[in-house]
Each structure stands twice: as structure tokens, then as C-alpha cells.
Amino acid sequence: MSKRKIIKIILTVVLLLRFFLPFLIFSKPLLALFLSLILDSIDGQLFYFLKFRWDQYNTVDKLLDFWWYLFIVFFFWGKTTFPIAVILFTYRSIGQFYGILAKREEVYLFFPNILEWFFFATLIFSKAPIILLLAISILWSLFVEWLIHKSNAHILSRYLFHDEILWKDKRKLTSEKLPT
Fold this sequence. Notes:
Blueprint: H1 3-20, H2 29-49, H3 54-76, H4 82-102, H5 107-110, H6 114-124, H7 130-149, H8 155-161
């Protein structure tokens, strides 16, 4: 079996896992978050290996993110933090859809993923004041967005695949061939 075929199979499995994984949030929220973060951090490399354009990858990735964020909002249903989750979800969703339509990665720096980190903070520091959880989530999400979308630090992907993603103009790939 060719490497391209193997990578296609792996990508299919990763995408299916990203689709079904959110259901785990209701029984094992931390595990669901951890697995979601891992899968989200490697799928770009798989799209890159298969020579998809950045905008193709970005659309699929952001739609799967949106799906995951819906489950986070459902997780908060009935909790005092639910209205905050809805606001953070709406804010990020606006940025994601604008980023998909405008095909501009920098958009995510202005619409950071505060929701996911707020979810994490509420799980870990459940007794902390909400304002502190929000502050931590905002600061961390800004750092993470900068790390991903400005510095191009694809740390986990680089570690696992020993390759660097170089979406040169965000519409064409710079990779000449599939890694050996």
C-alpha cells in the first residue's frame, strides 16, 4: 500500500474521530478535550501531505471545530456559565465563518478560541471565580492563536511527522512531494 493511501486512511480516521468524539464530552469531558486537541493539531499535517490547499483544509477544520464547540455549549446547558459559553461560542463562530469566507488566517487572532479554554478552565478550576476563569481563558487563547496562526509553531505535528507545514500563500502548497 502506498504512503499516500495510508495517509488518506489515517486522515479519514482522524476526521471521523473528530466528528464522533464530541459525544464523549458528557461522560469524560477532560478526555474528550484532550483527544480533540490532539486530533485538531495533526489533521492539518495530513491535509498538507495529501496536497490539499490551505483553504480546503481550513474549511473542513473550522467546520469540525464548530461541531466540537456546539457540544461544549451543550455541556454548559443548565449551568450558571451557560450564557458565557453561548457568547464565546457566537464570538468564535463569527470569526470562523469570516475566516473561511475571507480565506484569511489572521482573522483567528481577533476571534480567539476562548470557549475551548474556558471549558478547560472550568473543568480544572471549578471553584475559581468566573471572572478569573475568563481572564485566564482569554490570555491563554490569545497566546495559542498567536502560536498557531502567527508563529506557525505546529509543535505536535512537527514532532510526530518530522516535517513542517508551509502553506506559503495559503492557497497553494509548497511541498513538492509526499514525505518518504
